[in-house]
Write a structure and sequence with these properties.
Layout lengths: L16 H5 L3 E10 L8 E2 L21 E7 L14 E6 L1 H4 L5 E4 L5 E6 L13 H4 L12 E10 L8 H5 L16 H8 L6 E3 L21 E7 L13 E6 L1 H5 L6 E6 L3
Antiparallel strand pairs: 1-7, 1-8, 2-3, 2-7, 3-4, 4-6, 5-11, 9-10, 10-11
Length: about 270
């Protein structure tokens, strides 16, 4: 899918259109809806796909993790750098989702786990007797009920909170002048339209506070948003106090199907 020939923009942002269009990245928006799913389906929460020879993930303290999300690339039509086939799973420990900290960061998969199965096995080769497949035992889990996922492919400009916004727009949003006869600033308008706060794979992230990668060359290597889940009362999704969950990966490692090096960060309001 190619970027749109003409990106729809608020009139007040037309003066910086070339800069905005230069930042476009593909994004796969995820729309969750309540439905009983199969072990193979893309979903939030619910029962996970598990081959017989795979053990259920536990955190470093020996506690069983719960499945946050499952993405079946074989069912989807995603483009590079994302896989064309296989199943990707995200598990998190109760010690993380019970946390009251405003920012929760992890680089080592001690309290979360990302698993990728390059080949999808038939149903008769799966393990149906998995403890947390039957019921999430820990409360409160951030996703209240099992939900299937619909996926739409589009493009989005750099989000207002991504550290690269200054690179693409040449200067901080706060430097742009106030909109005449309106009272709003360009920064206000950009925050209103391009916050990036939605469930998605790819594209640009949303940060409640600051992009933690901005001042860290080490963290900037995590340049691809692998999964973002935001709090949404209507969907019964709530991370702490209206928080957000993000998993990042390096693009080259993603293309190599190497999911061993993941940056996890969750935020919530203080």
């Amino acid at each position: 899918m190619k970027p749109p020939h003409h990106l729809e923009l608020p009139t007040e942002l037309e003066s910086i259109r070339p800069l905005i269009e230069n930042s476009l990245l593909p994004i796969y928006k995820l729309l969750p809806f309540s439905k009983t799913t199969s072990l193979f389906d893309s979903k939030f929460s619910g029962s996970a796909y598990f081959p017989y020879n795979i053990t259920y993930p536990k955190d470093i303290d020996g506690c069983q993790m719960a499945m946050l999300a499952q993405i079946n690339f074989t069912q989807l039509n995603m483009e590079l750098p994302f896989p064309k086939e296989g199943i990707l799973q995200f598990f998190i420990s109760p010690s993380i989702y019970r946390s009251k900290l405003p920012i929760e960061e992890h680089l080592f998969q001690h309290y979360f786990k990302v698993r990728y199965y390059p080949q999808v096995l038939p149903a008769e080769k799966l393990n149906y007797d998995v403890p947390l497949n039957k019921k999430v035992e820990y409360e409160p889990f951030p996703i209240g009920n099992e939900m299937a996922l619909l996926l739409t492919h589009t493009f989005e400009p750099v989000s207002a909170m991504d550290y690269r916004v200054e690179r693409y727009l040449k200067k901080p949003l706060s430097y742009y002048s106030t909109i005449p006869n309106d009272g709003k600033s360009i920064e206000d308008l950009y925050l209103e339209h391009y916050l990036g706060a939605e469930h998605k794979i790819g594209g640009y992230p949303y940060f409640i506070y600051d992009d933690t990668r901005k001042s860290s060359p080490f963290l900037r290597r995590f340049d691809t948003l692998l999964l973002q889940i935001v709090s949404n009362d209507a969907q019964n999704i709530m991370w702490g106090d209206s928080g957000i969950i993000k998993f990042f990966i390096n693009e080259q490692k993603l293309m190599n199907l190497d999911f061993s090096d993941i940056y996890f960060i969750a935020e919530q309001y203080e």
